[in-house]
Amino acid sequence: MAVCLTGCSKICPARLVCPFRQPSPRRLASQLQAPRPPTAPKQFPDLKRIRQNVDIYSKNCVDRNYGGHADFPAEIARLGRESQLVAADIPELSKKIKELQREIATANASQTSSNSSSQRTAIATEEAATLRDALGELETRKASYDATAHELALALPNLTNSETPLTGGPQLISYIGHEPGQVVPSQSHTSHVDIGTSLSILDFNSATLSTGWGFYFLINEGALLEQALVQYALSMVLRQGWTAVAPPSVVYSYIADACGFQPRDQNDERQIWQIQQAEKDALKPKRSLAATAEIPLAAMYAGKDIPEEQLPLKLVGSSRCYRAEAGARGVDTKGLYRVHEFTKVEMFAWTDSTDDSQDTERSMPVFNEMLQIQREIFSSLGLPCRILEMPSSDLGASAVRKVDIEVLFPSRMSRDEGWGEVTSLSICTDYQSRRLGTRTLQKSGKRGKFPHTVNGTAMAVPRVLAAILEHGWREEERCVIIPEVLRPYMGGQEKIQRKRKDKHFHS
């Protein structure tokens, strides 16, 4: 938030000028946002709901680690009241101006040209000019109030589902292929970094020289295993009737922002990478590298209507993803667990909604379908997992509910008891569709409600690949057993062993 230059105590987004110093609604609109193409979707935050539930939204900000935003709902309500007061004065002023304009027109049309008549016309003209200035000021103030409230509303996180814990850590839902208290054999505690390096399928040193920390080369069976995981995950999702999409990995930054991926999070840590533009392109909309296929998939229907008979509309896309991973999250992590670039298969769906925009009744069937697909994938890979209901403090801006699956990594037993996230699954209600201008289209041709969006990971390749290496490692044979379901995608190969003559790749 910026300190107001006029010295007032109003809450204003950092890129806004004080509402009382705006010269015109048109200039205000240009100052509210970075340059956007004319095709950019219009955003529709639910201002009415926020104004009617100030305490709920304020508490939700605190629950979601958005403490700095907790005053926004009250300010939105105040701005709404101010806007209404100003709006109430506008019709009366407009009426007086029109009356004066008619009086002036009548006088000008009259043949009478006495001094008194001319004097009355001059007075009416001056009064009309004064009223027009006052009207312009009121319209500017109203536009400023509305625009500021609009911006504050867009900065708020989504509300939180009743299934989501508000305090404490994640809550265990169930296990997959694992029993509570089950001990991982000590022989399998070798890190995937050591395993992959010894088998010449991972090369971090070359990547450090070519690109830097957080990047890697997959070689030989490592590269093939990545493709096998992608193809297997796609096959598991497609057999449920989903539509395959190959999305771009570059998006407009305002699209990423609308999906809930701000360039920096509430702790001011960078989330996504923006693409530097040439000076000649400084006024063009900025672009970012997509952190997940969720962003370009959501944008497929930005500013569009989805016929209600097509809902739920379910897409699955494989893409390269880019994460800044700044701060403490990435510094102490070695190997494939936390990297800057990776391949991921993402599920994304739009579902119908009820009159209550936060009611998840119609999006739950797709949510459960996604979770079942995730269960089947990791069960068939033979990896020990646990399914967690994530607390409100762990939810991003867009989700009302999030369920994660974590795999037990033998080499990470000293950290988080070995558990590491490999998938997430979120219901976002109408948060994204409101910000992307996506609506349902009724059979009558009338535009309907904002659909709900649901997204979930089908396969985050590096982490799953790392888990396969650690659980499939056989110390005595110095090999990795390939999960049976992946072998058809690797030419029937059953294990990964270091080739005796490996002249080209070594670490």
UniProtKB/TrEMBL annotation:
Alphabetic keyword roster: Aminoacyl-tRNA synthetase, ATP-binding, Ligase, Nucleotide-binding
Aminoacyl-transfer RNA synthetases class-II family profile domain ranges (all copies): 222-483
SUPFAM superfamilies named among the record's database cross-references: Class II aaRS and biotin synthetases, tRNA-binding arm
A biological process term (GO) from this entry: seryl-tRNA aminoacylation
EC numbers, comma separated: 6.1.1.11
Name of the featured protein: serine--tRNA ligase
Binding site for L-serine: 292, 323, 346, 455
Binding locations of ATP: 323-325, 339-342, 421-424
Entry's Gene Ontology molecular function annotations: ATP binding; serine-tRNA ligase activity
Pfam families in alphabetical order: Seryl_tRNA_N (PF02403), tRNA-synt_2b (PF00587)
Annotated site residues (Important for serine binding) in this chain: 457
Gene3D superfamilies: Bira Bifunctional Protein, Domain 2 (3.30.930.10), Serine-tRNA synthetase, tRNA binding domain (1.10.287.40)
